[in-house]
Amino acid sequence: MIQYLNAETVRLIIATGSFLALLFIIFFIYRYFFSLLKHRVIRTNNKLDNFVVDLFKIPALWLIYWILLKVFTRIFLSTLAIYPYLKHLNTLLIIFSIAWISIQFIRAGEYYLLRKFDMDAADNLNARKNLTQIKVFKGIANSVIIVVAISISLLTFQQARTIGLSLLTSAGVIGIIVGFAAQKSIALILAGIQIAITQPIRLDDVVIVEDEWGRIEEITLTYVVVKIWDERRLVLPITWFLENPFQNWTRSNADIIGTIFIYVDYSFPVESLRTVLPDMLKGNTDWDGRVVNVQVTKVTEQYKELRVLLSSSNSSKNWNLRTEIREKMIDFINENYPDTFAKIRIKTNGNSENKSVNYVI
C-alpha cells in the first residue's frame, strides 16, 4: 500500500508517528520526575510549594509539547505543503500557553498573599479589606490576559487583520454601536473596580440587603453573592451596591451591639433584672464585656417596654448571645415574677358583678 503513497505523505506519516511516540515517552519521563519533585515538596511541609507545583504541572507539560512540536515541524516538515498551517498552529499554541502560565502565576500570587491574612481572627477588618481587593483585581487581570490572548490569536489570521483594517475605517460608527451595546457590561466592570477601591462592602461583611441578613460570600467583576443565614444565596449585580441603600454591620469593625426587647407589666421591678443580668452573662464567651444595659424605652396603657443592650465581637456571636439571654430573662421573670408579663386587661360588666379578665401578650 505504501507504494501508492507519494513521498510527501509517507514523510508526514513517519513524522507524525515519531512525534506521537516521542510524546508518550516524554510524558512518562515528565510524570516520573514530577512525582519525585512532588514527594520532595511534601517533605518540606510548605503548603505554598505544594500549591505552586500542582499549579504548574499541566502548563509546564503543555510548554514542553509546544517546543517538541515546533522542533519536529521545523526539522521534518518544513518542506511540506502543510508546514505553514502547522507553523500557524504553533503560534496559537504559544500564545495560549503564555496566557495560561500568566493566569497560573496570578493564582500563585493570590495564594501567597491570602496566606498572609487570617480571616478567622476576631478583628479581621484588614484581612477582609485586602482579600476583597485581591479577588477583584485578580478577576481584572485574568480578564485582561484572556482578552489580549484572544485578540493576538485573531490577528494571526489574515482575514481577521483585513476585517480589523476595514473596521478602523468606520471606527466612529462602530464605536458608537459597540459603546451602546457594551454600556451595561462596562458599567458592571467599572463598578467592580470602584467596589475594590472604595470598598463599601468586603468579603465576609455582614449585610442586610432586600430585607435579608447574610454575609458577602463572593465578589466578582459583575455580581456579588450574599450567603443568607439559612444557607440560601442571594445574587445581585455589583452595581446594586452602588445604587441602593443597604446595611453593612461590619463596615468599620466587626464589633456590634445587639438589642433584646421584653414587654412587662407596670408592676415588674426593673432593678431586679439589672441586678441579675451580669450573672446571666458570666462565663458566656459570646459577650465581649463592653456593653450591658437595661432601660425602659416605651410605655403604653397596658405594658412597658424594656430594652436590653449587649455587645459582642461579631454579629454571629451577638445573635447567639441575644437568643440565650432572652431565654434566661423569660425564665427569670416566669420563676420570680410570673404575674408581671405584659397583659391586656378587659373589664366586663355582668348583671350581678364586675369581672376582670387578663390576657397575656
Describe the structure.
The strands form 3 sheets. The chain has a 5-stranded antiparallel sheet. It has a 3-stranded antiparallel sheet with strand order 6-8-7, with helices on one face. The protein has a two-stranded antiparallel ribbon with strand order 9-10. Among the domains are: 2-116, no CATH class; 256-345, Alpha-Beta Plaits. The chain has 11 helices and 10 strands. Helix content is 57%, strand content 18%. The chain has helices spanning 7-44, 47-55, 57-76, 83-114, 125-155, 158-169, 171-181, 183-198, 240-243, 270-281, 315-336, and strands at residues 206-209, 212-219, 223-228, 233-237, 247-248, 256-264, 292-299, 304-312, 343-349, 354-360. Strand 9 and strand 10 (354-360) form a beta hairpin. The protein is of the alpha+beta class and 361 residues long.
What's the gist of this structure?
The chain is of the alpha+beta class. The chain has eleven helices and ten strands. It is elongated, with a radius of gyration of 34 Å.
Compute the gyration radius: what is it?
34 Å
Report the average pLDDT across residues.
Answer: 79
Assembly classification: single chain
Based on Cα principal axes, name the global outline.
elongated
SSE string, helices as H and strands as E = HHHHHHHHEEEEHEEHEEHEE
- Fraction of residues in helices? 55-70%
* Cα separation of the termini: 98 Å
Number of strands: 10
Continuous helix count: 11
Q: If strands are numbered along the chain, what order do they take across the biggest sheet?
A: 4-3-2-1-5
